[in-house]
Each structure stands twice: as C-alpha cells, then as structure tokens.
Specification:
Layout: H1 10-16, H2 26-47, E1 53-61, E2 64-74, H3 84-89, H4 110-122, E3 127-131, E4 137-145, E5 150-159, E6 167-175, H5 185-195, E7 200-204, E8 212-214, H6 237-246, H7 252-259, H8 265-275, H9 288-300, H10 316-326, E9 331-336, E10 340-342, E11 345-355, E12 362-365, E13 371-375, E14 396-401, E15 404-406, H11 414-421, E16 441-449, H12 466-518, H13 522-539
Parallel strand pairs: 1-7, 14-16
Antiparallel strand pairs: 1-2, 2-6, 3-4, 3-6, 4-5, 7-8, 9-11, 10-11, 11-16, 12-13, 14-15
Helix pairs in contact: 2-4, 5-10, 7-8, 8-9, 11-12, 12-13
C-alpha cells in the first residue's frame, strides 16, 4: 500500500473532478470557458485604465455538431511573453489570490481549467496571441502536463504584424453544446453588458448572420480598488500564527500596527494587555498558547470596520444605465447599501429593479355602447433581447458578484433566499409563500467584495452568510418601497381612467332613458347629461 501512494497534482484532481469548476456538461462547459476568458479580459483592461472592447466568437466546426471553436479577444495591456504559458497552462497561478481588493478572478484556476478541459475533450490545447505596447505579438500553442501541473509549449512564434497594438486573444476547441435561452452564453453576454455599461461587447455565435454589438453606455473606467491589509476580525488562529512567524516587525506592538488595518497604537496596546503579553515581545517567539490568548483578545477589542477603498461597486447611475440599455421597462429603482463586513472582509450590496406594467387595460364595447369585457395586454415571454419575462411568471433575478453574472444554482444562492424572504406584497407584487414574486420585472443584485464567499470553485452561487442576507434584504426593501409608490400611483391613475371610460360609455344611455321617462326636449336632455357629467367629475378623486 505504501508503494502505491503518490502526490496528486492539482491538475489531475480537477481533471477528474471537472464538475467542481463548472464543466458539468457540454452546455455549461461552453459557458464557463467564455465566462472565465471574459472575466480575465475585463480585469486586465480595467487595471490598465482601458475601456474594454471585447470580441466573443463561437464557431461551429464543419461536420461536428458537438465541437466548437471559441475565441475571446480584448484590447487590454497584453501579457509579457514569459508569463503567457503559466497563466494559461498552469492551475492555481495568478496574482489575485493574496490580493485584498476587488477583482473578478480569485484563485487563478478558471482560464487554465478551460484550456485543460479543451485538451481533455479534443486533444487540442489552447492558442494564445498577446501583444504589449511597443513589442511584437507572440503566438503560443500550449499543452498541459496534468501530472506535474506544468505548461508545455508546442509553438512559440513571433508575429510580424498583428492588427491590435496591444491586447490578447484566447482560442480553444472543445466539446460543447450551444443553445440559446436562460443560462446560455447569449444570456451571459446580455447580463455582462448590463453590469458593465463601460464595456463594448461584440458577440458572434452560430446562426447569426451579423455579430451582435453591445455598445458602451459609459466612457468612464471604474475606479480600481486599493489593496488593503487584513482586518484582525477576519484572521483565524492558524493564520495569525503564520503571520507572527513571517512578519518583519521586531516587536509585537509593531506587528499589530503594521500587518493589520485599523489597528492604531491605542488599540494595539489594549489588545496586548488583554492577552497578558508584552509590547516588546518578539512575534516569531510567540508560543501557540500565547497566540491563542492574542487571538481571543483581538475578538474582544473594539476595532473599526476595514476601509472600503478596496471596493469598486457599479454605482447607482451605472446600474440605471445598464438596465435602461438592455431592458424595456416602465420604471426603474436603484439602491446602494453602505459598506458592511463579514469575517473581516468588506463588501457592498447594490440592487436595481426594472418593472414593466403588464399592459394597458381597455374596454370592449358593442354597437349599443354596452361594455362586454375588460382585456389586459401581456408582454412576451423571456428572450435574450428583453430580460423582462411574462407578467404571470416569477420575476428574474440577475445575480452578480464583482460585476460577473451568476447563471447557475439560483435556488441555493443567498441572493435568491433573501429575495424569497422579502415581503414583495407590500410593494405591489404578487407573491406566494416561500417563492419569488410574480410580475414582469427584473431584480439586479450585485455584491462587491475583496473575497466573495462562493459555494464552490465554479463560482455559481453566493453562500448565505447572515451578514450578506441582511444587507441584500435591506437593499431590496429600499428599492421595493420606491417600486411600491410607483405601482400604487399607476393603479390609481388606471382606476381613474377606467371610471372616466365608464362615464363616457354609460351617460349617453342614461340621458336617453331620462328623456323617454320625463319627456324631455333634446336640448334639456343634453343639459341634464352635462350636469350629471360635471357632478360625477367633481366627486371623482383625482
């Protein structure tokens, strides 16, 4: 048994458990591949202060219904030659895992996992073209050694002329299924355009004669979040011991002030006194029992919340622009909550609502002026051109984490649970117990955080932490109140117009009846009808 034991490579592990990364089936594999590449492109452009211009292509391969070639191209700063193989051919390689600031990527797995999946299903590794300013473009073709988790370069060619001055193009051929509708690549591109109104997206898929272009609605690049130090409340005992061993600070007081945020001289002194230690203690010589006492003292101390300069929320104005650009709604409401904290990590919740009235009520009147029935016009069902669904269906929830759409596992997501627990009846929407409200509406929920608590490595749903659920619920309630005011006002106006229609429909017949009963002259009849109309109008509440 001992002879058969060996180290397992992270690449081997995910190759056998690819469902953990979102490659459950061919349809999701296509979506995950494009999603990871677009996320990287967005991050690269924004970090360089460039308005993203991204091209997404899905090309069918002749004679093969189950294989597609995918290409994602951006106008970002490009990648230096030495880093290209590791970024695209090695799992758990990146710059964002240890960085405490908002970004779409976190673990350094996504794009390399997409290349690994392509290699596993078609035998072809990814192809990358990248160019930095004032340098020539390089064309790489890679294969991944899953046993050693290392990239193997099968082609490294310098291109004399490439049409982009700087940028990156990622291509791979994979086993996949392309379908339209909810949860598809089409839906992902649409939602990405909503949450990123500063980005220009060009999308070409099988069956499209012309590419679909989502123009940027804003010319302002989102501000890049500043990196912050860890907050004491978010550090567990094991991590604290590790930090004590690795710190460059000579004294314990200096360690607390320099290696953590929001810890000043007064707070550091109180923590050390509570732990029964000395300010001149050497951090590297702190024993486990002393570190435990220090950790307990930190939890008891009153420490300010971490700074929120590390966050880059979409913003109410940008959310409104995105919803207006991609939905055909009659009313919009947006709410941004103040920053909050979970496990020492700052986060901020934003909610936007787009609502469309089901249709204008109108009366059917026969030839004698008799009202036969009241009709209501309905909007069409969901399609990728209109995110608003049917008025008789459950509303759509557009879930975003750091501007990235979450399209799967909606039922297990904390955002959905918060929406279900909100009483939408108070705001004019129909809702059954334990379910989402019904109506022609869309609720956009965005979480900006330095570390998003996903339920899995596939990054498809948010863990239902109490702190997060509370903030989402409060944001939905605030936006819901604005919607409720609008719906009640609309119902009042609609009721008034309906009453006016009744008056116009019935009064002439009342006048004719009065003329026949009282033997009135036509002129007197008209005066009587005018008097009744004036009386009804004056008693009607405007």
């Amino acid at each position: 048994m001992a002879a058969s034991q060996r180290e397992i490579s992270i690449s081997e592990f995910f190759a056998k458990n690819r469902h953990l990364l979102g490659f459950d089936n061919p349809k999701k594999a296509l979506l995950t591949t494009i999603k990871e590449a677009v996320d990287n492109s967005m991050d690269a452009c924004e970090e360089a202060g460039i308005l993203p211009e991204i091209l997404v292509e899905i090309m069918a391969i002749d004679g093969q219904d189950d294989r597609f070639k995918v290409a994602i191209q951006d106008n970002g700063p490009g990648i230096v030659k030495a880093q290209v193989p590791n970024i695209f051919g090695k799992l758990l390689y990146g710059s964002k895992f240890h960085s405490r600031r908002q970004s779409r990527g976190q673990q350094g797995i996504g794009i390399s996992a997409a290349g690994l999946y392509a290699q596993m299903t078609t035998g072809k590794g990814p192809e990358i073209i990248s160019r930095v300013k004032r340098k020539k473009a390089h064309h790489f073709v890679l294969q991944m050694d899953s046993t050693k988790n290392k990239p193997m370069i099968t082609r490294d060619k310098e291109l004399a002329d490439w049409h982009l001055k700087h940028g990156t193009r990622f291509e791979c051929t994979l086993e996949a299924t392309y379908k339209r509708g909810k949860g598809s690549v089409d839906d992902y591109i649409k939602q990405t355009a909503v949450a990123n109104p500063h980005a220009s997206l060009t999308y070409l898929a099988p069956g499209m004669e012309e590419p679909m272009v989502y123009e940027a609605a804003s010319k302002i690049v989102p501000e890049r979040g500043e990196e912050i130090k860890p907050h004491p409340y978010g550090v567990e005992l094991g991590e604290l011991i590790k930090m004590l061993r690795q710190t460059n600070s000579r004294w314990l007081s200096g360690f607390l002030k320099e290696d953590f945020c929001r810890v000043g001289p007064k707070v550091a002194k109180s923590i050390i006194a509570e732990a029964g230690l000395s300010e001149k203690s050497y951090p590297s010589r702190i024993a486990r029992e002393e570190a435990d006492a220090l950790h307990r003292a930190i939890q008891k101390a009153k420490i300010s919340s971490p700074p929120t300069t590390c966050l880059s929320p979409i913003g109410e104005e940008r959310i409104l622009e995105g919803l207006q650009k991609e939905t055909d709604a009659d009313f919009y409401a947006v709410c941004t909550r103040p920053p909050s904290v979970y496990r020492g990590n700052p986060f901020q919740i934003e909610v936007g609502i787009a609502w469309a009235k089901p249709g204008d009520d109108h009366l059917d009147v026969d030839g004698d002026g008799k009202i036969t029935k009241i009709k209501k016009k309905k909007r069409g069902t969901f399609d990728t051109e209109n995110l608003l669904g049917n008025a008789d269906d459950a509303i759509r929830i557009l879930r975003f984490a750091n501007r990235v759409p979450l399209l799967s596992q909606q039922a297990s997501c904390g955002f959905t649970k918060a929406a279900i627990s909100t009483s939408w009846k108070n705001y004019g929407l129909q809702q059954s117990k334990g379910s989402l409200p019904v109506g022609s509406a869309v609720i956009l929920v965005h979480m900006a955080s330095v570390w998003v608590p996903f339920t899995s490595e596939a990054k498809e749903a948010i863990a239902p932490y109490d702190e997060i659920l509370k903030e989402v619920r409060l944001a939905m309630q605030e936006a819901g109140r604005k919607l409720g005011v609008h719906i009640r006002k609309g119902k009042k106006i609609s009721s008034e117009f309906q009453k006016r229609n009744y008056i116009d429909a019935f009064l002439p017949h009342v006048g004719i009846g009065l003329q026949e009963i009282l033997k009135l002259e036509p002129e007197v009849r008209e005066d009587t009808v005018d008097m009744l109309r004036a009386t009804l109008e004056s008693t009607r509440k405007i």
